[in-house]
Design brief:
single chain, about 300 residues, Rossmann fold, 12 helices, 10 strands, about 35% helix, about 20% strand, binds adenosine-5'-triphosphate, binds magnesium ion
Length: about 300
């Protein structure tokens, strides 16, 4: 079963924790507005998530290994690389979605504000409350626009209509969708265009005030205009959230991200490995996007970004 299919049920089954119960020493519930703007030089901001020798197996097959990187607050980090090199697999580790994938096993260390995300005391539902996810294919629930956005807050126990109204409006505004839907909040989310549906999914994700938003190819099902809207939106969201995006679109990575992680598949040791798709993904290079696209340090990165490989 893939994660995208199980997300709504997973959310429905979970109860929201009291704020700060996962990270008692860090205020993560109230997004700050102190981030660097696009025009400012990129400072080394605080690390939110740190992966150290992160590795994921499916059964006995190592899908990706040697992932060492830091996701910094109020930055957009892009994951790029050829198909099958483990980008989605790594992204799913970041909010423990791999817990829901049969046979997936995560090793190494992944911390969130210094806490081992896979530690025995950490509740995966709480993790997903703070680290939201938006998928490749827009997946609104078959409910009204209003109920899509109110879904998470209702699960969190918010019942007062006025409170829900305020959350729905601010989330839809935050996803740059409010003006387009404010007069039809009670109509089905499935009646929106693809680009609007994806912004609805972003509104649904931010309605529970996550700190980090993970996006797995959020624009791949969208036309260029809808894609541009989502990219603009990501720029706006950066001041409130930390974003990690998987993209196959190199221009998009260059346009939107502050840092880029380039993944690739290890050279296969045998033809059998290639035939059976048994190659392991590795993180080849991680750094500031501008530097990586102008002066990559690894030959494989250069070959990929210049279109000679992958
Ligand atoms: N649920 C699963 N069970 C078994 N193997 C899986 C599963 N999901 C992914 N894999 C394997 O793990 C490897 C990495 O897959 P992943 O989907 O993370 O790659 P990706 O870089 O996101 O690729 P794409 O760009 O095509 O989306 C691949 O070899 C894939 O076949
Ligand atoms: Mg993928």
């Amino acid at each position: 079963m893939i994660a995208a299919e199980v997300q709504p049920e997973m959310s429905a089954a979970s109860t929201f924790p009291p704020r700060r119960s996962l990270v008692p020493d860090v205020s993560i519930a109230t997004p700050t507005t102190t981030s660097t703007s696009a025009a400012e030089p990129l400072a080394d901001t605080r690390g939110v998530m740190v992966a150290t020798n992160l590795e994921v197996h499916y059964g006995d097959q190592c899908a990706v290994r040697d992932v060492n990187l830091t996701i910094r607050e109020h930055e957009i980090t892009a994951f790029i690389g050829p198909s099958g090199c483990g980008k989605s697999t790594v992204l799913r580790c970041f909010n423990r979605m791999n817990d829901l994938v049969d046979g997936a096993r995560v090793s190494g260390l992944l911390t969130y504000h210094g806490i081992d995300l896979y530690g025995p005391e950490v509740n995966a539902a709480q993790v997903r409350r703070r680290i939201g996810m938006v998928f490749q294919k827009p997946n609104p629930f078959p409910k009204s626009i209003y109920d899509n956005v109110a879904f998470g807050p209702r699960l969190a126990g918010i019942k007062k209509r006025a409170e829900l109204d305020a959350i729905v409006e601010s989330s839809l505004r935050g996803a740059a969708l409010w003006d387009e839907v404010k007069s039809r909040l009670q109509t089905s989310g499935l009646g929106l265009s693809g680009g609007q549906q994806q912004r609805l999914c972003i509104a649904r994700a931010i309605a529970v005030e996550p700190e980090v938003v993970l996006m797995d190819e959020p624009c791949s099902a969208l036309d260029p205009i809808a894609t541009a809207r989502i990219e603009d939106l990501m720029h706006e969201m950066k001041s409130r959230y930390t974003i990690v995006i998987v993209t196959h679109n190199m221009q998009q990575a260059a346009r939107v991200s502050d840092r880029t992680a380039f993944f690739s598949s290890e050279s296969a040791a045998s033809a059998e490995q290639v035939k059976n798709d048994r190659r392991t993904g590795v993180l080849v290079e991680f750094g500031r996007t501008q530097r990586m696209f102008s002066n990559p340090s690894d030959e494989r990165t250069e070959q990929y970004i210049t279109g000679r490989f992958g």
